[in-house]
Amino acid sequence: MKRRIGRLEAQLLAYAQMRGWTRVRTGDLRKPMRLSADQERKLFSRLARAGMIARVWRGLYLVPKHLPLGGKWSPDEGLALATLMAAQGGRYQICGLNAFNRYGFDEQLPNRVYAYNNRLSGDRSIGSVQLTLIKVADDRLGATEQAEGNEGGPPAIYSSRARSLVDAVYDWSRFGSLPRGYGWIRSELEAKRVEANDLVELTLRYGDKGTIRRIGALLEREGVSDRLLRKLERALPTTSGPIPWIPRRPKRGPVGRRWGVVWNGEA
Q1: Ranges under pLDDT 50 in the chain
Q2: How confident is the model at residue 4, as a pLDDT?
Q3: How many angstroms from the chain centroid is the CA of residue 133?
Q4: Are residues 15 and 102 both part of a single domain?
Q5: Is residue 267 part of a domain?
Q6: C-alpha span between 207 and 220 (Å, rounded)
Q7: Which domain holds residue 37?
Q8: pLDDT of residue 67
Q9: 151 and 212 in one domain?
Q10: pTM of this prediction?
Q11: Residue 119: how many CB atoms within 10 A of its CB?
Q12: What are the C-alpha distances in Å from 93 to residues 55, 80, 132, 250?
């Protein structure tokens, strides 16, 4: 059944829809609706608690173009993140578990949206969208693609297929993605959905030394050309401390000297 709303709430939604607004700030409605600052604040608060608008940041709210049947509304992740990042002057890309699901690496559908960005860290919610924001340096953002937004809204920006594979190795601790990520890389190379050259370039751009060593060892096992492997090898300093092929397993097994990787299990 459609949610009943009061006169002021209905006036706010009607006014925003008439003006074509999808976002409002505190102060926008005081003059046209003849509200005091306290009345406006309480009005926004009531509508946000009722799930009819979504609070993005202090004094910034998203409003629906049309209130759906039942009266409850929430933005999609693309609109929520685009609005939040615009308010902060930042950039974002959806990553990790959401990207793994999008590209079919993992069938599990996350109940949160993970996003690298260059402004904020921590968990927050915008409407029903639950966000985990991971602040990174500007140069760790990139290699993205867009997913169409809902109802003409802004597209959602995702890490690309190849970039997501690199992140599965780089950010394995956060996303619990190794050793499964090695299988994803093998499958994507075999199906020619990604190219080894792209993986090498993205590993050099967005990986760290551990990522380079692990992906280098994997690509060598997969018979990738030595020309590409040498690109990775040149980025590595001489090291005497090998790392485990599969993190969090004991470092027991033969050592691959070229990459400094302990083969401590099959994956």
Answers
A1: 1-2
A2: 61
A3: 8
A4: no
A5: no
A6: 17
A7: 7-62
A8: 76
A9: no
A10: 0.94
A11: 15
A12: 21, 12, 12, 34
**Pair (167, 258) in one structural domain:** yes
Tokens of 78: 């693309």
- Specify the residue for token string 């940041």: 57
143 with 201, same domain: the answer is no
Per-residue 3-state assignment (H helix, E strand, C coil) for the chain: CCCCCCHHHHHHHHHHHHHCCCEEECCCCHHHHCCCHHHHHHHHHHHHHCCCCEEEECCEEECCCCCCCCCCCCCCHHHHHHHHHHHHCCCEEECHHHHHHHCCCCCCCCCCEEEEECCCCEEEEECCEEEEEEECCHHHCCCEEEECCHHHCCCEEEECHHHHHHHHHHCHHHHCCCCHHHHHHHHHHHCCCCCHHHHHHHHHHHCCHHHHHHHHHHHHHCCCCHHHHHHHHHCCCCCCCCEECCCCCCCCCCEECCCCEECCCCC
